[in-house]
Inverse folding.
C-alpha cells in the first residue's frame, strides 16, 4: 500500500510490521529492530536526522501496542507523539506588507501586552510578548496582520489543543471529544490514536471466536471491494465471521423512530446518539442537553449485542474510520470488545498478503438506508423513512449538522432554547463517518468507488430487513448502562 500522505504512510508501515510480527509470534523479539527496518539510514528521509526518525517510530510502536505515551491519560484515545511534533515555530500573528504605517496605530493601542512596536517599516509584533489574543488583527483597518494558526489547534472544535512549555502540542483531555480532527489535520502525523491491534490478533491466534463488525462507511475505502469480498478477506485474517454494522443501523433507525414519536407527542426535542464524538461534545460542553440525547444504542452497539446473542462466548471487533468509537466502547456496556480503524485493517491485510479482490461471499446484512448512516443526513433520513413507512404523519423537522463546527453552533442554539427543529442529527466529521480520521482512501476516489458499489447493492428496506431477515427481539436497545 502506498498512501499519498507520507504521514499516513509512516503510520501504516509501523502498523504493518506490528501486525506481521504479532501473527508470527515474534513481536517481542523484533520490536527493537523495527525502527531500523523502517529507517535503515544512514541518511534521514523526512526529518533532521535518522535518530529522531527512529525515535518517532519507537513512539508509534508504543501506541501501536496499545500502551500509554508520555502525558496520555489511561483511558484517552488520542495522544501527541513528542518526537514527531515540530512545535510549529511560527508566530501566529505577523504584520504583512499591507501595513500602511498609519497614524492611528490602532494595532498598537489594542494590544494589552505591549507586544507591538512601531518601526520605520511599520508595526512589528514581538513573538516573545504576544499572547495571541487577536486584538491587533481585529483592530487593523487594512487587514495587514495575518493570523496563521497551528493546524491542530485550528482543527479542534472544542479548544482542547494547547501548547506545553516546549511549544509542542498538548491535549486537554477534560475538553477532548476524541473526534480525531487534530490527528487528521496535523501535517507531521504527530498526533495518533492508541491501537489494540496486538490484542485482537492474539485473541484470534489463541482460538477465541472473534467476529468482525465493519462500519457502513467501508464501501469505497478498499477500492471496488464489495461486502462479499471484504467478508472473505476477513475470514482469511482469522475472524470467525463478519457482519455489516449497517444491520445495526437498521435496528437503530427503527428504535430511534419510536423514540422520536414519543418525543414529538410530548413536545420534546431529541438528538441522535450514533456519533460518539457528538455525544461527548454534549456531555462535556453542553451537559444541560444530555437528557435530550437519544437513548437508542449506536449501530455498533446493537450489532455487537446481536452477534453475541447468536454466538455466545464470541468477541466482537468493530472496524471503521472512526477514532471516537474507541471511546464509546469504554462507556457503553455490551458494545464491541475492540475497535479497529480501516488503517489498522489495511495493515493487517498487507501483513498477511491478502488481496481483498481475490474472492467473495454473496451476502449482505444491512439495508441501503442502513448503509447511508455513514454519510451526513443518513441517520435522520433513515429515521424519517421508518416513520413514513409506519404512516406517522405528525410534522417534524430535522437539522443535519455536517461536521463538528456545525454541531457546536446547533447545540449552542439548542442550549438557549432557540433551535426550532425537533431532531438534531450530529456528525463530528464533515461528510459523515466516511470521512473519519482512520480512513484509507482519499475523498475523490472514495466518492467514486462508493457511489458505484452502493448502486449495485441490495435495495431492500429497513423494516423488511430486521423483520424478515434478522431477529432483534431479544436485543437491549438502550445505551444507559455504563462500564465501570
Amino acid at each position: 500500500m502506498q498512501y499519498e500522505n507520507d504521514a499516513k504512510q509512516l503510520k501504516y508501515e509501523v502498523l504493518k510490521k506490528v501486525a506481521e510480527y504479532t501473527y508470527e509470534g515474534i513481536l517481542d523479539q523484533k520490536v527493537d529492530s523495527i525502527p531500523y527496518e523502517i529507517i535503515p539510514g544512514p541518511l534521514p528521509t523526512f526529518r533532521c536526522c535518522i535518530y529522531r526518525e527512529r525515535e518517532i517510530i519507537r513512539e508509534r510502536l508504543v501506541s501501536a501496542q496499545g500502551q500509554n505515551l508520555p502525558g496520555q491519560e489511561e483511558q484517552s484515545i488520542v495522544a501527541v507523539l513528542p518526537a514527531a511534533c515540530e512545535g510549529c515555530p511560527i508566530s501566529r500573528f505577523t504584520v504583512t506588507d499591507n501595513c500602511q504605517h498609519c497614524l492611528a496605530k490602532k494595532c498598537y493601542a489594542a494590544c494589552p501586552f505591549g507586544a507591538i512596536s512601531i518601526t520605520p517599516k511599520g508595526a512589528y509584533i514581538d513573538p516573545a510578548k504576544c499572547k495571541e489574543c487577536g486584538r491587533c488583527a481585529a483592530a487593523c483597518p487594512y487587514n495587514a496582520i495575518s493570523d496563521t494558526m497551528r493546524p491542530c489547534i485550528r482543527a479542534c472544535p472544542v479548544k482542547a489543543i494547547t501548547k506545553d512549555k516546549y511549544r509542542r502540542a498538548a491535549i486537554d483531555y477534560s475538553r477532548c471529544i476524541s473526534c480525531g480532527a487534530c490527528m487528521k489535520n496535523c501535517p507531521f502525523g504527530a498526533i495518533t490514536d492508541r491501537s489494540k491491534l496486538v490484542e485482537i490478533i492474539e485473541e484470534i491466534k489463541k482460538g477465541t471466536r472473534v467476529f468482525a463488525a465493519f462500519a457502513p462507511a467501508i464501501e469505497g475505502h478498499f477500492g471496488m471491494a464489495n461486502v462479499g469480498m471484504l467478508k472473505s478477506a476477513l475470514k482469511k485474517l482469522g475472524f470467525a465471521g463478519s457482519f455489516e454494522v449497517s444491520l445495526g443501523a437498521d435496528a437503530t433507525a427503527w428504535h430511534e423512530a419510536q423514540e422520536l414519536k414519543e418525543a414529538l407527542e410530548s413536545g420534546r426535542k431529541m438528538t441522535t446518539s450514533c456519533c460518539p464524538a457528538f455525544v461527548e461534545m454534549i456531555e462535556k460542553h453542553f451537559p444541560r442537553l444530555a437528557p435530550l440525547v437519544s437513548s437508542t444504542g449506536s449501530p455498533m452497539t446493537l450489532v455487537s449485542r446481536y452477534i453475541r446473542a447468536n454466538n455466545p462466548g464470541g468477541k466482537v471487533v468493530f472496524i471503521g474510520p472512526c477514532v471516537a468509537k474507541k471511546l464509546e466502547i469504554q462507556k457503553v456496556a455490551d458494545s464491541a470488545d475492540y475497535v479497529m480503524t480501516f488503517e489498522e485493517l489495511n495493515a493487517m491485510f498487507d501483513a498477511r498478503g491478502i488481496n481483498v479482490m481475490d474472492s467473495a461471499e454473496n451476502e449482505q446484512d444491512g439495508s441501503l438506508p442502513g448503509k447511508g448512516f455513514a454519510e451526513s443526513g443518513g441517520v435522520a433520513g433513515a429515521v424519517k423513512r421508518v416513520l413514513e413507512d409506519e404512516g406517522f404523519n405528525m410534522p417534524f423537522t430535522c437539522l443535519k449538522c455536517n461536521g463538528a463546527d456545525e454541531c457546536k453552533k446547533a447545540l449552542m442554539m439548542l442550549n438557549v432554547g432557540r433551535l426550532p427543529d425537533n431532531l438534531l442529527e450530529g456528525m463530528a466529521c464533515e461528510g459523515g463517518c466516511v470521512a473519519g480520521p482512520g480512513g484509507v482512501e482519499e475523498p475523490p476516489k472514495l466518492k467514486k468507488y462508493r457511489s458505484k458499489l452502493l448502486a449495485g447493492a441490495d435495495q431492500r428496506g429497513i423494516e423488511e430487513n430486521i423483520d424478515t431477515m434478522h431477529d432483534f427481539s431479544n436485543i437491549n436497545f438502550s445505551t444507559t448502562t455504563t462500564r465501570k
In short: The first strand starts at residue 78 and ends at 80.
